[in-house]
Amino acid sequence: MTPVLELTGITKQFPGVLANDHIDLKLEKGEILALLGENGAGKSTLMNILYGLYQPDSGTIFVNGKQIDVHSSIDAIRAGIGMVHQHFMLIPVFTVTDNVMLGEESLVLGDFLDRKTAAARIRKISEQYNLDVDPNAMVGDLPVGVQQRVEIIKLLYRDASILIFDEPTAVLTPQEADELFKIMRSLSEQGKSIIFITHKLREVLEYSDRIMVIRRGKVIGETTPSDADQEKLAEMMVGRAVNLNQDKKKAQKGEIVLQAKDLVVADSTKKITVHSITFTLYSGEILGIAGVQGNGQTELEEAVTGMRDFESGEIQISGKVIRKIKPREFVEAGGAHVPEDRQRDGLILSFPVEDNLMLCTYYKPPFSINGILDRKEIRRNAQTLISEFDVRTPSPLTDVGTLSGGNQQKVIVARELSRNNRLIVASQPTRGLDVGSIEYIHGQLLKKRDEGCGILLISSELDEIMELSDRILVMYKGEAIVTVDADAVSKSEIGLYMAGISQQRIPGSSETAAEKSSMGE
Amino acid sequence: MSALNNDTEQKKNEAKQAGEIFLQELSRKPSNNNSFFSKLWSAIQIPFLAILSGLFLGALIIIFTSPDVYEAFGKGLGTGFKAVFSVVGNAYGALFAGAFGSPSKIMEALRTGEKIDRVFKPISQSLVETTPYLLSGLALALGFRAGIFNVGGEGQIYVGGTAAAFVGFAFADLPRAIHLPLSVLVGIIAGGIWGFIPGWLKAKTGSHEVINTIMLNYIALRLVEFLLTGPMTKIGSGGMPISNPVQESARIPLIFKKPLTLHYGFFFALIMAVLIWFFLFKTKWGFNLQMAGANKHAAKYAGLNIGIWTVLGMTISGALNGLCGANQVLGVTYTMGLGVSAGYGFDSIALALLANNNPLGCILSALLFGLLRTGSRNMMSNTGIPLDIVSIVQAFILMFIAAPAIIRTVYHLRAKKVQAPTAVNVSGWGGNR
Q1: How do residues B375-417 score in pLDDT, each as one tens digit?
Q2: Chain A residues within 8 A of B301 when measuring between CB atoms
Q3: A350/B294 CB distance under 8 A
Q4: pLDDT category, B159, cuts 50, 70, 90?
Q5: What does DSSP say about strands A210-215 and A218-223: parallel, antiparallel, or unpaired?
Q6: How many domains does one find in chain A?
Q7: Residue with the larger pLDDT of the pair B114 and B10
Q8: Nearest chain B Cα to A85, which residue?
Q9: Does any CB of chain A come closer than 8 Å to the CB of residue B258?
Q10: How far is CA A299 from CA A273, A427, B36, B183, B291, in A?
């Protein structure tokens, strides 16, 4: 049987990088193929070539045995190829129907938009694949998981038979992710063929039919979930053995380093997003803040580190009450902050690496003496940190904006963790990073913990929270709905908390809880 | 991309390929060769090629607007081309001679010892013209580094010049050692205040400095006009907008005798350039200023109060423009009039960009502007080509600086390394801003 899709010898050269090096790929009908690789391995480039966003330097694309030229996404859609991007391409103030029709409406140029027929078709597609999407809902009102399904409907509406998902679970709760994979399975059972791009090993093993690993633009190998395990896949991805499970000693809790009492924080639009949160962080432990993005974690992080004023409540750092804290006071009090948005807050992209490595303490010795910057010392500091934290940069004078995401994050981690601090607030410290960098940063955080730092770890990556935390606080709609010992809970329990299911509901029946969760979406 | 070009363009003649390869070699990003010259070249290649291209397009305009050329082409192709070269040659020759002086005359004068002051007059005049460009250029460069677009240079120059003129003529019998510095200082302060206002408005209310500085230009102009026709007017000027001449003791001394008008303000401006450079790149306060300009979120994260640094940046920028006004009044015109600024406040925007907002680079681009302006006067009087051609050349240069992609395409330079797509993904992730 001819494969639905076949790529042969796809090669793409970017200045200085061979992004795709003679990649061959076959996709059978009804198959779910996982494309696994680190950031920058070339998987997104490959899919963008397939989708017509880039032109390959060489290589051919066959759909159903016929060679096609893909010069733009329109060609790709015509050939039945559709892509769900990591960032949704939806207009929030439009209804589902309008969003789905967008781009297709040009076909009825000069005519009125026929919303009724479109809505009926959307409803039919939604029923056929169990997507559960209301065509008349406003997209902005829908949870992220449903928005993603709107994206899927957009593709099905255009009769796509090959669906590409780019890091589809990055923005989902575990429950939503499970839901998505169920949908993917039902799509494949009804004859659609699926490629999904990811760097998450667990997803690949659980949900794919076949796994293709790409490293540095080359296909490293192919395997199936039954023949592989996480260690093997990680090694294929990174090219060396990776320690996936950090050896974690038991936490040696000490004195209180950070205490928040009835903390109320508003976002930039003055909407209260953190409702009266109270927690205590001890030295020598990692307190994980779990939650789906947008449940107040960002504002909590900013309030604690002085980036945002809080409305009421109290913060104590090492026993000192602080009513209004500024970022510099936070640093002076022994705090380190790995911010959520590294490019906006954590780095000055147009500044060289060495300047970014002194960003929070540049104003005092050894970096600045009587107001004059000591460039020698700054260079020495940069060289030490670059080698110690393995930052891959051509030189300390390279603009930090030209480094890869993982190395940018390493610059921040190097700067923040190298100070002699007692308190670390790390928000999404490994977001978007590859396995190797994640391993490294996790190791560094645990090392700091064992040295007696108190670490507040905010992450929407549940695996990360589970792996590193000693205690876990789950935030939902701005409230701390539970604080538990990490050893005492399972991942699925935390997942339910993240979806807003309160503790009392769980013991009764897990079915009720699951029902509630899908209703909640 | 360039490698591909080489593959496909083999039919092109060898000389062109050699030129391309040469340019590529020159423009190659220094990987492990960090020699001084390769760094210098990578810093100046775009400005250099922009100037070259600007002069080239200026030449085209000279050709197309010259009646002689059309006439010559009517006579024949050969005569036509000859005329093209002679028109451009004459124009740019006069420009050059007007800016630097005539090399042969300089040699002659040095040999005979006669008319030495006259042959050096053009270069002296160019340096006098360079000074206000440099001071105002520094103001703009510092502003850009601090993330501020100060379009209020003209107003700040007017205010600074007027204040300096007032102190210059109102106080008699002061020794120069006090009178001159005092006049300069008051000019600086006045310009600083004119910069402080939009800075403070931006920090407090978030109103955009471009709008406010433009508005303050109008206010300054009318205010100065009022002062010059009323309270400060020159006695017996009959209501002309011109101030009393400043006292001898408040004038910046000339370095040589007349007709060489070069005054110590030029060296003072050079020192300012070095000081500003030191401030921006070697002190923590300069680092603060640049942080606030480059990324205010990260600057806040690093512990800065952005508002203070916005106000400060704007104030220093205004003060430098005030100094520019004081320099013109005390060193060149000796009286405050409405013609004190020949558009320095606006030209310096281009100047600062040409210098990549580097204070030392400002010295070079101010020299360029000063030479062009002085030379263009000679060009007009000798060849009848209007001064404005220089404005056109300057405008082209600025356009090429603002859109370096044009230069890179035309000269087949390698683009700066584009950020890897993976790095871009990271910032927009999640979407709960």
Answers
A1: 998 898 888 888 888 888 888 888 887 787 777 777 777 654 4
A2: 307, 327, 337, 339, 345-346, 359-360
A3: yes
A4: very high
A5: antiparallel
A6: 3
A7: B114
A8: B425
A9: no
A10: 7, 11, 47, 52, 23
A276 and A155 assigned to the same domain = no
Query: In chain A, positions 40-99, which contact chain B (CB-CB < 8 Å)?
Result: 40, 44-45, 86-87
* B1: closest chain A residue by CA: A15
Same domain, residue pair A364 and A481: no
pLDDT band at A435 (very low <50, low <70, confident <90, very high): confident
Same domain, A262 and A233: no
- Residue among B303, B423, B428 minimizing CB distance to A331: B303
CB-based contact, B33 to chain A, within 8 Å: no
Our CA dihedral for B297, B353, B148, B428, rounded to 10 degrees, sits at -30
Tokens representing B412 are 């087949």
Tell me, letter by letter, the H, E, C secondary structure of B184-204: HHHHHHHHHHHHHHHHHHHHH
> Quick check: helix, strand or coil at residue A357?
coil
Cα(B29)–Cα(B1) distance, rounded to whole angstroms?
A: 15
DSSP-derived secondary structure letter, B338:
T
Q: Are A104 and A209 in a shared domain?
A: yes
Q: Looking at the structure, do residues A46 and A187 belong to the same domain, yes or no?
A: yes
Tokens representing residue B122 in the block:
């053009």
Identify the residue among B282, B426, B427, B433 best suited for mutation to test binding to A, counting A beta carbons within 10 A and taking the highest. Answer: B426
Can you tell me which residue has the tokens 């700054």?
A378
Domain ranges of chain B: 127-370
ipTM over 0.90: no
Are A419 and A184 in contact by the 8 Å Cβ rule? The answer is no
Domain span at A136: 5-238
In DSSP notation, A106-161 reads GGGTTS---HHHHHHHHHHHHHHTT----TTSBGGGS-HHHHHHHHHHHHHHTT-S
**Maximal CA-CA distance, chain A:** 76
d(CA A52, CA A316): 54
Q: Does A349 touch chain B (CB under 8 A)?
A: yes
Q: Please, which residues 440-469 of chain A have a Cβ atom closer than 8 Å to chain B?
A: 460
* A10/A110 same-domain check: yes
Give the CATH number of the domain where residue A231 resides. Answer: 3.40.50.300
Q: Do A373 and B426 touch (CB under 8 A)?
A: no
pTM of the full structure: 0.76
Confirm or reject contact between A321 and chain B (CB < 8 A): no
Is A171's CB within 8 Å of B430's CB? yes
**A102 vs A84, higher pLDDT:** A84
Cβ(B357)–Cβ(B347) below 8 Å: no
Residue pLDDT, tens place only, B324-349: 999 999 999 999 998 888 889 999 99
Can you read off the two tokens belonging to residue B191?
């310009």
Instruction: Show residues of chain B in contact with A341, CB under 8 Å.
Output: 297, 427
User: Does residue A246 belong to any structural domain of this protein?
Assistant: no
Residue A444 lies in a domain: no
Tokens of residue A236, six digits: 């294929």
Task: Tell me the per-residue pLDDT of B168-181, one tens digit each, with 9 for 90 and over.
Answer: 999 888 899 999 99
Q: Are B24 and B412 in contact (CB under 8 A)?
A: yes
Q: Share the mean pLDDT of chain A.
A: 86
Helices (H) and strands (E) in chain A, counts: 18, 22
The last residue of one of the domains, among A178, A205, A238, is A238
Cα separation, A207 vs A323, in Å, equals 49
In this prediction, what percent of chain B has a pLDDT beyond 70?
87
| Same domain for A356 and A490 | no
Model pLDDT for residues B205-216, shown as the tens digit of each residue: 989 999 999 999
Distance CA A274, CA B136 (A): 49
Listed in order, strand segments (DSSP E) in A126-271 are 162-166, 193-198, 210-215, 218-223, 256-266
